[in-house]
Amino acid sequence: MKPYRVILYYCYSPIADPDAYRDEHHLFCVEHNLLGRIIVAPEGLNGTVSGTVEDCEAYMEYVRSDERFSSVQFKIEEHDTIAFQKLHVRVKDEIVNSDLHVNPLVRTGKHLEPSEFRKLINDPDVVLVDMRSDYEHEVGKFKGAITFDMHNLRELPDHVHEIEHLKDKKIVTYCTGGIKCEKASAYLLEQGFTDVYQLHGGIIRYGLEEGGENFDGKCYVFDNRITVDVNKVNPTVISTCYICHTACDRMVNCANPECNNHVPICEACAEQMEGACTEECKSHPAKRVYNGTGYYVAQSNHYHPMQGLKSQKKTIKHLKLAAQNTGTV
What we know:
Largest sheet: 5 strands, mixed
Low-confidence stretches: none
CATH architecture of the largest domain: 3-Layer(aba) Sandwich
Number of domains: 3
CATH superfamily of the largest domain: Rhodanese-like domain
Strand order of the largest sheet: 4-1-3-2-5
Shape: globular
Strand content: 15-25%
Mean pLDDT: 92
CATH class of the largest domain: Alpha Beta
Distance between the termini: 30 Å
Helix content: 25-40%
CATH topology of the largest domain: Oxidized Rhodanese, domain 1
Structural class: alpha/beta
């Protein structure tokens, strides 16, 4: 067992006072040395957090102890180090940006458990549709899946016409952890698709529970790992180095922060280009120092774990004391 964990989860469940819950949630994370990104919205909760095994166990118990989130499903991965360098708990309008104006609590695609999904993926009457961004499916996707040239889920309405002719087929959507598909599948139903399913728990859960068969390449994730292995059955590499075009599934964020292109770059080219994706980016005056990974923490002035807190002064004092006790300030 590795000493740290990365936990991915979401839960659609109404939160009456997101600001108050955000502060309570934030305080728990600081007191338990957890880092990551968590979104609190009127429609629910979404997060990826990382910490020790003990602290992650405490966190999962804390979330599930709230009756609003008692049914939440956690995807748990072991890791050698903590996968984040900061903690951000933010209140937003949606737990995943979509602007699709659908409510998964009212209607969404039928959930397929990983074992059910594995049985269906080779069915010639099943159409797999990837609901992730272009840079994500460039480095990894299910064999034969339809992908869209979109940068985020808000662009889905611009691409639905590409599968219009498949309205009467069995459509199975998938994404990293399942959250995008809750709204994407609901949107497809609204657009007249008649038989819509979604992979419950996404690519990550499918890899953990079923070995990831027929997932080509690696899965893009939004922490300092950048990509993770999924397929333990028949793995292959589908992406090529952005610079030399050899087979490569090593994703890099361009060292030029004004570009920040998410592309595969092999180790040799990354060293030669100092982490940049083009000669122009290599010579850019704002270029970051390449650290060998291609992952860069966003700069923020005077970051502290209490950032964004909106509660009363006594709660702020409590949080500061907790941060001092854990050595995070």
